[in-house]
């Protein structure tokens, strides 16, 4: 079904109601529905609540919506779920990929609640049952627009970012490792715009470095024990966390975000090790299957530069955002 696309602006500014959201002088809404009756109904609701600050357009298909977004530049897309061609689910995914800062709100007919959940999982910002449009549409749009404004402001703030440094002092509790790596990954995604593959590499390298500092550094657990008796290894780790001198030792983690480089420093309070005895062969993939040495192999593979201090109780890892030049370079203190 098709109907002419329409841009509507009302001059009525005296009636109650309306849609006012901080950060918007004008709100642009794109309505997508193949049913002309539903399109007209939604257009009527928007016109009724227009106080001179709403501009909206209606289109009859997902294909038309993607084309209209280019020139209309809506602040939010309000779309039907079930349409021929590009349906609501696919439209949500397309918008998320092509226009990530434009939220999509679904209008769902009775019986399509499960599809709405799927759409939310795929990137929809919210949904409104069609039977509740008259009572819930404006409130839902207000909440979604407020959240979208926050996201846009965060994106602008990211463009102003210069550098960041933060520090953590950790007990020898491996459950803290995930919290620290997740914190770093969240920051990198928000301000450094790393993709999922890059975030994964950074997360694995930090996990291995902090875990090594806790187990091999502070708790002085040997790799040979892990190779011969894994259960005994973890039992001994739990025991040493409660006795001197291991109990009072801490892991010091520093993250420095500088331009296109990330510097991560992990230091433990253990006796250290002989750095000169550690060899790295990027072609020796068998290291991935060994209980010992696997962590350092992954760190050196995923980071662009890795250095130890002369005592062997501090590791500095550098991750370069641009390209892969220099990846797998390794230098230790004194080399």
From TrEMBL:
<dbReference type="Pfam" id="PF00072">
    <property type="entry name" value="Response_reg"/>
</dbReference>
<protein>
    <recommendedName>
        <fullName>Response regulatory domain-containing protein</fullName>
    </recommendedName>
</protein>
<dbReference type="GO" id="GO:0000160">
    <property type="term" value="P:phosphorelay signal transduction system"/>
</dbReference>
<feature type="domain" description="Response regulatory">
    <location>
        <begin position="28"/>
        <end position="145"/>
    </location>
</feature>
<dbReference type="InterPro" id="IPR001789">
    <property type="entry name" value="Sig_transdc_resp-reg_receiver"/>
</dbReference>
<dbReference type="InterPro" id="IPR036890">
    <property type="entry name" value="HATPase_C_sf"/>
</dbReference>
<dbReference type="InterPro" id="IPR050595">
    <property type="entry name" value="Bact_response_regulator"/>
</dbReference>
<dbReference type="InterPro" id="IPR011006">
    <property type="entry name" value="CheY-like_superfamily"/>
</dbReference>
<dbReference type="InterPro" id="IPR003594">
    <property type="entry name" value="HATPase_dom"/>
</dbReference>
<dbReference type="Pfam" id="PF13581">
    <property type="entry name" value="HATPase_c_2"/>
</dbReference>
<feature type="modified residue" description="4-aspartylphosphate">
    <location>
        <position position="80"/>
    </location>
</feature>
<keyword id="KW-0597">Phosphoprotein</keyword>
């Amino acid at each position: 079904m098709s109907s002419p696309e329409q841009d509507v602006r009302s001059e009525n500014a005296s009636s109650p109601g309306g849609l006012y959201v901080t950060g918007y002088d004008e709100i642009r809404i794109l309505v997508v529905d193949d049913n002309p009756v539903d399109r007209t109904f939604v257009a009527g609701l928007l016109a009724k609540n227009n106080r001179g600050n709403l501009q909206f357009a209606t289109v009859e298909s997902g294909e038309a919506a993607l084309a209209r977004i280019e020139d209309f530049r809506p602040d939010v897309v309000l779309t039907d779920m079930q349409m021929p061609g590009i349906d609501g689910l696919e439209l949500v995914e397309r918008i998320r990929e092509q226009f990530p800062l434009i939220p999509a709100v679904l209008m769902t007919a009775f019986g399509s609640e499960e599809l709405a959940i799927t759409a939310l999982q795929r990137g929809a910002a919210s949904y409104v049952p069609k039977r509740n449009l008259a009572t819930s549409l404006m409130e839902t749009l207000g909440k979604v627009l407020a959240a979208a404004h926050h996201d846009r402001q965060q994106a602008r703030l990211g463009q102003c970012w210069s550098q960041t440094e933060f520090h953590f002092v950790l007990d020898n509790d491996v459950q803290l490792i995930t919290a620290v790596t997740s914190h770093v990954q969240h920051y990198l995604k928000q301000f450094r715009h790393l993709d999922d593959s890059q975030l994964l590499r950074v997360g694995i390298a930090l996990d291995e470095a902090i875990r090594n500092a806790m187990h091999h550094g502070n708790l002085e657990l040997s790799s040979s024990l892990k190779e011969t008796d894994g259960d005994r290894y973890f039992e001994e780790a739990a025991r040493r966390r409660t006795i001197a001198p291991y109990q009072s030792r801490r892991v010091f983690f520093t993250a420095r975000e500088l331009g296109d480089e990330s510097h991560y420093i992990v230091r433990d309070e253990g006796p250290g090790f002989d750095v000169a005895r550690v060899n790295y062969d990027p072609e020796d993939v068998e290291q991935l299957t060994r209980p010992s040495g696997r962590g350092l192999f992954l760190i050196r593979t995923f980071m662009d530069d890795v250095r130890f201090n002369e005592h062997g109780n501090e590791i500095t890892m550098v991750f370069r955002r641009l390209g892969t030049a220099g990846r797998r370079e390794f230098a230790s203190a004194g080399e």
